[in-house]
Amino acid sequence: MPEGLEVEIYRRAAVALVGRRISRLTVDDRIAEADVADALPGCSFQAARRIGKLLLLDTDGPTVGLHFGMTGRIVVDDDAPIEELVYGSHRDDPAWDRFVVDLVDGGRARVNDPRRWASVTLDPDTSALGPDLLALTADDVRAAVAGRRAPVKAVLLDQRRIAGLGNLCVDEVLFDAGIDPRRPGGELDDEDVVALHRSMATCLPAMLARGGSHCGSVSPDVRAELPPCPRDGANLRRAVVGGRSTVWCPSHQR
Questions:
Q1: Range of the domain at 163
Q2: pLDDT, tens digit, for every residue of 98-126?
């Protein structure tokens, strides 16, 4: 957290900045490039875009790249589109404001991050990122897994393959598609790829509409309690796959 779905929620909130001019910045230089504070005052926001987990705020000067790490949130004009992250703090402490944009009209946008894992860059290079999680084709999924010996869970977490998928989203789409997260990506046949793409095309927008990556069948509560699989009643399993805690059903995920 936040995954690409949360950053899409942030992007929608950041649209409120378009057409507004920056008066001054307060920047924690431990998360931002050295020239951020000098380059942006006086600039106007032109657009709010996203690719994967990266929020891109275009101005009539440089483009601002915001990556939120595990615990970063954006707040625009005192409106937090996500009040609290599932695995983050439940407090909004002003001491955690790492990037504050004061606007000429009196408004304000800020990135609040208790762990200081967020980052702010100018004109970020996005060329290494794969296609975005909300705009995938079946061919994109096929290309992402083709020839890969690593577990499909690890392949899908690789932002160079598909941008924006995180731990919760990957477990969800694999659960829905009936694919064992430990299977080598290159062993998925065309039927598997079609099923995986279908799950991405249906599960991800549905989770976004419900509030984010924590709103799927393999929710944080399910991950903590490991109840019987809601699909077939089998005992869910938990293990580390691709370096991440992974929950799956050994019965219907093959």
A1: 138-248
A2: 999 999 999 999 999 999 999 999 999 99
Domain boundary, last residue among 88, 122, 156:
122
Distance CA 240, CA 224 (A): 14
Is residue 197 one of the residues assigned to a domain? Answer: yes
CA gap 250, 229 in Å, rounded: 9
SS3 84: coil
| Alpha-carbon gap, residue 169 to 5, rounded angstroms | 9
Residue with tokens 């307060």: 26
Average pLDDT over residues 123-150: 98
In the 8-state DSSP scheme, what is residue 28?
-
Q: Would you please indicate which residues are annotated as catalytic (active-site) residues?
A: 2-3, 53, 244
131 occurs within a structural domain: no
Query: Average of pLDDT values for 172-176?
Result: 98
Query: Is residue 9 domain-shared with residue 110, that is, in the same domain?
Result: yes
The domain total for the chain is: 2
pLDDT in tens, 46-83: 999 999 999 999 999 999 999 999 899 999 999 999 87
Q: Do residue 163 and residue 236 come from a single domain?
A: yes
Tokens read off for 51:
């690719």
CB of 38 within 8 A of CB of 56?
no
Residues with Cβ within 8 Å of 1's Cβ and at least 6 positions away in sequence, in order, are 70, 71, 85, 86, 87, 88, 166, 168, 212, 213, 214
pTM comes to 0.95
Residue-level pLDDT at 33: 84
Helix (H, G, I), strand (E, B) or coil at 197: helix
**Domain contains 208:** yes
